[in-house]
Design brief:
single chain; 158 residues; alpha+beta; Glutaredoxin; seven-stranded mixed sheet; two-stranded antiparallel ribbon; 9 strands; 29% strand
Length: 158
Amino acid sequence: MTELRLAPGSTAPDFTLLDQDGSPVSLADLRGERVVLYFYPAAMTPGCTTQACDFRDSISSLQGAGYRVVGISRDEPAKLAEFRDRDALTFTLLSDPDHAVHTAYGVWGEKMNYGKVVEGVIRSTFVIDEQGVITHALYNVKATGHVARLRKVLGVDA
């Protein structure tokens, strides 16, 4: 079980992962932008689809407020491309198959799933400022309604 929890004021752990097109994306390359980095269990599952579509439907307001949305899962790039195409997702999806970045952010560990303790992805969202510092660390969020709550926390209109 992971004990690590990042907090506001922490430097966001850097990484380089492949995106849905197989191109490398580094967090360091996004310096100068505000980033909404969210971790989700698996592409094309009901909850993850709901959450991704909520981000898609809010992308104009988030981008208008200066935020770039990036999703991370353990799925391979080809599955991420299929997810993007199937649901018309308009933001970057990154592949972390060995869950090293999940571990660095404290989102891999024990959780309850249908009443049983399992090891896996703890659905979480981080807001990172232009200098790479975490301003919000939201662990164990729900798929449904999370994006609306996040917009409210960030003061972003719908």
